[in-house]
Amino acid sequence: MDQTERTTRKIRIGSLHIGGDSPIVVQSMCATRTLDIDATVAQTHQLAQAGAGVVRVALDSEKEVGALKEIRRQTEGITLSVDLQENYRIADKVAPYVDKIRYNPGHLHHIEKAKPIPQKVRWLAEIAREHDLAIRIGVNCGSVAPAFVEKYPGDQLAAIVESAVYHCDLMKEFGFERFVVSLKDSEPGKVIEVNRRFSRRCPDVPIHLGVTEAGLPPDGIIKTRVAFEKLLAQGIGDTIRVSLTLPNERKHEEVHVGRQIVDDVATGRFISVPEFDTGLNIISCPSCSRVENERFVELAQQVKQITTYAARYRITIAVMGCRVNGPGETDDADLGLWCGPTTVTLKKHERKIGNFKYDEVLSRLKLELDKLIAERGELPASAANQH
C-alpha cells in the first residue's frame, strides 16, 4: 500500500502542531467523571504518559467548570481538549482552562433554537480566537444535524460530509483557520468513504480520524486498523483517536494501539482480514465521562460472551453508555442497548422493547436475538456467501 504525503495546513493546539508535515498526533479521552477531580487528573497523566498528545475531557454544564479549572492546574504542560457535548453555551466558561474545544454540529440546534446556526458558530470562533484555542468540528453518524439529514434523505454519508463542509465554510467566512474536522462512523468502510470524500472537498483542512464505538478488543482494534491503515496510507489523517470499550484502568491501551497503527503504517506493515465484518457485529462506545453507570463496560463484555453462538450471523448489536449517543446510535442496530443510571433500554432498530435492570437485560437480549435469527431465516455468513 503506497504512502501519500499529507497536504493539509499546519495548525497549533497548545504547544503542539498538527497537519502538514507534523507527526501524526495520537489522542485519547478521559473516562472518569469530570467532577471527580482526583480520578480525572490521574487519568489525564496516565494517558499523557502513554503517549497521548492531546487528552480530552467532557463538560455538560457550568457546575463542572470549577472542577476543570482545578484539573487544568494539576495537569500543566498537558494539551487539553474539552468536549462541549450538547451545551455549546459553556464555551466561554471553559476556554481559559483548555487548548482546544470540540463541538458537534448535530448538537447546536438543541439549545437556543431560535438563534441561527451561523450565529452560534461565529460566537464559538470568537471565543477560540480570544483565548488562543483550536477547534474541532466533530460530526458523528448518530447525531447528524437534522437539516442535513432532511436535505440528503437516505444518504447518510452525504449528510455527514456536507455538514462538515458547511461548518468549514462558516469558519473560513469568520476568518478562523485553527480548526480540524472529524467525520466518524462505527463501520470502517463508511469511515474510509466519508473521509475520502471530505478530503477531496477540503484538501487543506486537517482531519481527526476515529471509528466511533469501535467496541471491545480485539474486534475494536481490527475495525480501527482497517479504516486507519487505508486512510493514513493515502495521506488522510493528521491526528487519531482509537475508541475502545475498556475499564478505566486500561484506557491507556487506546494510546498504545494508536501509536502502533501509526508506526506500522509508516513502515508498511498492514493487516489482512478478508473474512472480518461478515458476521455478528457488536458495536460499543468507549467508556467516557458521559457513561451513567460504570457497569456499562462489564455489560458490553457480557454481551460479547453470551452471543458467541451467533458469531456467523449478519446481525448488529449496539451497546451504548450514555444519553448523548445512546438514543441515536442504537437506531441503526438490529438490537440496541442504551445504558442509563439504573436500567437498560432494549431496542430493535428505532422501536423500544422495554427497560430492564442490568441483571435482567441479558436474558431478554438473548431471547430477542434468537427471535431475530428465526424470523429472518438467517443464514450464517459463510453459507450466504455461497449463494
What does this structure look like?
The protein is of the alpha/beta class and 387 residues long. The protein folds into 2 domains: 11-266, Dihydropteroate synthase-like (TIM Barrel, Alpha-Beta Barrel), CATH 3.20.20.20; 281-384, Sulfite Reductase Hemoprotein, domain 1 (2-Layer Sandwich), CATH 3.30.413.10. The chain is 37% helix and 18% strand. The protein contains 13 helices and 15 strands. It has helices spanning 37-50, 65-74, 91-94, 117-130, 146-151, 156-173, 188-201, 219-233, 253-266, 295-306, 326-329, 361-376, 381-384; strands spanning 11-13, 16-18, 25-29, 54-58, 80-83, 100-103, 134-140, 179-184, 207-210, 239-241, 281-284, 316-320, 335-339, 343-348, 351-357. The strands form 3 sheets. It has an 8-stranded parallel barrel, surrounded by 6 helices. Strands 11-12-13-14-15 form a 5-stranded mixed sheet. The two termini are 31 Å apart. Residues 381-387 have low confidence and may be disordered.
